[in-house]
Design goal:
This protein is mainly beta. The protein has 3 helices and 39 strands. Strands 29, 30, 31, 34, 35, 36, 37, 38 and 39 form a 9-stranded mixed sheet that branches. A hairpin with a 6-residue loop joins β5 and β6. The longest helix has 15 residues. The N and C termini lie far apart (74 Å).
């Protein structure tokens, strides 16, 4: 394919991209890779009955006149009568030339993390580079790529829509591999685990369009600042987003804008222990996803989802929705819990639906006695330590995503050598005194032990016959078991156990959250005392440094008011 700006070479019939010629460079892809099929390709990882595979022939590539790039999309289909299978991951990948975009490193705790021992740019020697450091939530993952300095040009992947990605707006995906490799991940278990692997039964019909995504190339002249390529790529991303849904795909499986529908409305919040009146769901995330339970969208991975962010008054508009039946879901930063409308939303071609005001009543039994953290589905507000100087990445020094530094899980034992965290309500500050992850404690090079954190708080009076409620919202869980005990840490049977939960592996992958969990623990008043009380939070599993949990928010509620 050649439009006079760039030339793309494909293998037929496999649809593998073997060459991208642009701005005087004969091939931007890895020419030292003798295997032509390992340069630019759609990657499918599937399994069925113990058999695994990574192949398929289904790619479509589109080049437009006057466009500095090309588009790609794929239609996946599983027909009635076909055997069942799991779709573990699918993505599009481009392996770029190492002599143009080099990296040289020594593997660390896992192969993806490398210590740069002999980089081309000597100022990066001794830093850590790791593909997981460049992960991003889907709601923010619109454009990413690489810049080559000689000649100065950029290679970018632009994702103009989230509708074909799974798990909702907070699902995290990779952007690049150390290598260098540029990715667009459509479906993966990263930061989620097997819950985000679609499993298809025998004969289960399914079809989904992934993409189109835009591979965009740009350049500057010698002597101009190469970083302006990034600014230009962001401007091009906005153009692509405004153009969605594209008009050029010649497939009946990709509906045009006129064949889609729109909805609008307003979301309010009613929490009588917070305000006596309904308030606007300012900044709420509102979405349409396949029918399910409240919160099911974060584990939904077969169909399409459409999300937006409400304004300060709680008003929302969702445009260009594919026809079908949906539930309306929402979550509101600052409040725990998930909202789901009881009314099914049916989108038809060309429809425009105005929905009556919706009211979200967050989980609540009684007044707040104390709280730790902010209910925002992440552990970002808690104490994130500086990395070991041996494993620093300067990109994340004085950066809001400080949690992306490598090896922070190892810092816990050194920072708390004499015992686990003791947090005193009214005295301690969760920004300084609450470690961002309850990880295992390193005993020696091969063994770890579980940890028990304490929350100490005073009660002036206790209603022994009433029920108190402990709300524990988790931002992440990785093969962890949370146990709750109150005022007696020695009892073998905890008051509450989560069981072994979570496979999101966010601790090892430099995330600040994975999947969200909410546990509500009833406390009979007679287990509390007037004066000082202690809640013991134990993470009991301890065979690995990566097992643990991240807290989102903890709240103790008193008994309900009686009118």
């Amino acid at each position: 394919m050649d439009n006079g700006i760039l030339q793309v070479t494909l293998l037929v019939p496999d649809g593998i991209v073997t060459g991208i010629k642009y701005n005087g460079v004969d091939n931007l892809l890895e020419i030292l890779n003798d295997d032509e099929t390992n340069r630019g390709y759609w990657d499918v990882v599937w399994s069925s009955g113990g058999t695994k595979g990574t192949t398929g022939i289904f790619e479509r590539f589109i080049m437009l006149k006057g466009s500095s790039g090309f588009y790609s999309y794929a239609i996946y289909e599983h027909l009635e009568g076909w055997p069942g299978f799991n779709l573990d991951e699918t993505r599009i990948a481009f392996k770029l030339r190492k002599d143009k975009l080099p990296d040289r490193g020594q593997p660390l705790a896992y192969p993806e993390a490398v210590l740069l021992v002999n980089p081309v740019e000597p100022e990066f020697k001794g830093e850590v580079d790791d593909k997981y450091q460049y992960s991003c939530e889907d709601k923010d993952l619109k454009v990413h790529g690489w810049i080559c300095m000689d000649p100065p040009l950029g290679f970018w992947i632009i994702i103009p829509s989230d509708e074909f990605r799974s798990g909702g707006p907070l699902k995290q995906n990779l952007t690049s591999h150390v290598g260098p490799t540029a990715l667009s991940v459509f479906l993966s278990a990263h930061y989620a685990g097997e819950d985000l692997v679609p499993k298809f039964g025998d004969g289960e019909p399914w079809k989904k369009v992934f993409g189109p995504v835009f591979i965009y190339l740009n350049y500057v002249n010698e002597g101009e600042d190469p970083l302006t390529l990034w600014e230009d790529a962001k401007e091009q991303m906005l153009i692509e987003v405004e153009s969605w849904p594209y008009s050029f795909p010649a497939s009946e499986d990709f509906p045009s804008s006129s064949q889609r529908g729109n909805i609008s409305g307003r979301l309010l919040v009613q929490d009588r222990y917070f305000k006596d009146y309904k308030i606007s769901a300012s900044g709420a995330y509102v979405g349409l996803a396949p029918p399910g339970e409240a919160g099911s969208w974060q584990r939904e991975c077969k169909d399409y989802q459409f999300w937006t962010k409400a304004d300060e008054e709680g008003y929302y508009v969702i445009s260009d929705i594919r026809a079908g039946d949906y539930n309306l879901y929402a979550f509101v930063p600052g409040f725990i819990g998930d909202y789901k409308s009881d009314i099914k939303v049916t989108i038809t071609s060309g429809c425009s639906i105005e929905i009556d005001d919706l009211v979200f009543e967050p989980p609540r039994n009684g007044p707040t006695l104390w709280e730790i953290g902010i209910p925002d589905r992440s552990a970002r507000e808690f104490y994130i330590p500086d990395p070991d100087p041996k494993y620093i990445n300067k990109l994340f020094v004085n950066h809001p995503d400080k949690f992306r530094q490598y090896g922070l899980w190892e810092r816990y034992t050194g920072l708390y050598p004499n015992g686990d965290i003791v947090f005193t309500v009214g005295e301690s500050d969760y920004k300084k005194d609450w470690f961002f992850a309850q990880v295992t404690r390193k005993r020696d090079e091969k063994t770890y032990i579980g940890t028990t954190w304490q929350i100490k708080f005073k009660l002036d009076s206790v209603k022994q016959k009433e029920i108190y409620t402990l709300r524990v919202a988790l931002a992440s869980a990785a093969q962890a078991e949370l146990q709750v005990r109150v005022n007696d840490s020695s009892t073998n049977t905890p008051l509450f156990s989560s069981g072994v939960i979570g496979k999101d592996n966010a601790i090892a992958r430099h995330g600040i959250h994975g999947l969200h969990w909410l546990f509500n623990v009833n406390l009979q008043g007679n287990i509390l005392v007037e004066g000082e009380n202690t809640i013991y939070l134990t993470q009991a599993n301890s065979t690995s440094p990566f097992q643990g949990i991240m807290y989102d928010y903890i709240r103790l509620e008193g008994p309900p008011y009686h009118d």
